[in-house]
Amino acid sequence: MTMDTAERAGALETRGIEPVPAAERGGHPMQLFWVWFAANISILGLPLGATLVAVQHLAFWQAVLVAIIGAAGSFAIVGVVSIAGRRGGAPGLTLSRAVFGVRGNFGPTLVSLVSRLGWETVNTTTAAFAFLSLCAILFGTDAGAKASPVLTIVGVALFVLLTVTVSGLGHAVLVAVQRWSTWIFGALNVVVGVSLVTRIHWDKVFAASPAPVGAMIAGIGTIAAGTGIGWANASADMSRYQSPAVRAGSLIASAAAGAGIPLVLLISLGSLISADDPSLASAGDPVAAIRELLPSWMAVPYLIAAFGGLLLSNHLSVYSAGLTTLTLGIRIKRVYAVVVDIVVTFLGSLYFMLVADGFYGPFIAFISLLAVPITAWVGVFLVDMIKRRTYDPAALMDLRHTSGYWYRAGCEPRALVAWAVAIVAGYLFTTAGTGKDVWFSGPFAQTWLGTNGVGWVVTFVVGAGLYAALGGARGTR
Fold this sequence. Notes:
Layout: H1 3-9, H2 29-39, H3 45-54, H4 60-88, H5 92-95, H6 97-100, H7 106-139, H8 149-169, H9 171-197, H10 202-207, H11 213-226, H12 228-231, H13 235-239, H14 248-276, H15 286-291, H16 299-327, H17 334-354, H18 360-387, H19 393-397, H20 413-428, E1 431-432, E2 440-441, H21 448-451, H22 455-469
Antiparallel strand pairs: 1-2
């Protein structure tokens, strides 16, 4: 039975993290194109673009170039990692057991789960801001979160309910919803984007002086960390249903183009807006900040587009988080794992909206911190993938000492050492946060590598290089 037949037979996915049999894998790259496209048409691309101008001081043309390299380039890496999903038919962090050992994989899996929960909290918080603004327009309520705590809770709960409805049902429903919703919310984003562009003071945009090359490099790091790097360890979660006959190049292209097209447009638009009005990059409520730039008649479609785009991103993130939770060894059904993750996201969103003083300072710090361990995992995983062509389905699911991926006490020392050393090396050059919202600054953060935001590149080189030097990539095991 092919995947398409399975999708028509029933909506609810009952499979957990166990590898999908080859006979049930009939997916094709265009499905992934729509999945990645939908997951990246959210409003979060606008403030990312704004930071390129307001923080890195790039000219508009530089910001566009940075968006292309950072977003499309980092999602090409996502596409490369998704090749493992096609080979093994299992989620990314489940396949990672073959690299780190069934016990040693706990660390990378926990980091991945924290990353997914963090992005879900960002999505939910931003969507709730959109909901409050929409209610203020339609019903005259107060748009402030702390001034309307009950309405804030309702907005968060509504977004969470809509998310779990799709993510809980599973892969087949997720693919269908992502594809068709893309047209609806994508069209709304185009209309809003055109309206924003018509209000730009182009003399300010073209008067900006170009920034040094180092600032562009730092911008590429910021965009890569905020886009593709955060999705890299989740890419195989979707590609596990791809047909074994699908070419690797098609998987890479589907991710790079699917995510790159909307991200480049949104990031470029955000940088264009910020070149005209730098306040967007420091806005506590970016939804309201952009709303102020639009004519009143555009407010409702804009807010609907913002809410819907974030929802599409959250569908994929929550689905992946459920699989990652199961990979930790928690013995519950996938749909219940989704519910557990959603509860954490719900509480985190309420904290940022009702308790915390800011939102986007922590957001930039968050993506900077997690980009390092995730990139370290990517480096080790990709080196292993170069030689490994198959994964043992039974060994992936066997957590006992009888597992083919038990190695030494359940751990693969070379992989774990390379991963840990790469994390330390990356943090030495990393600054987490911007301006006054700096959470962490490594001892070499003020060197050329650190100030240009390429600590994550150091992480990748060290992780991949050390793992290869230790002889970790020895082929199929």
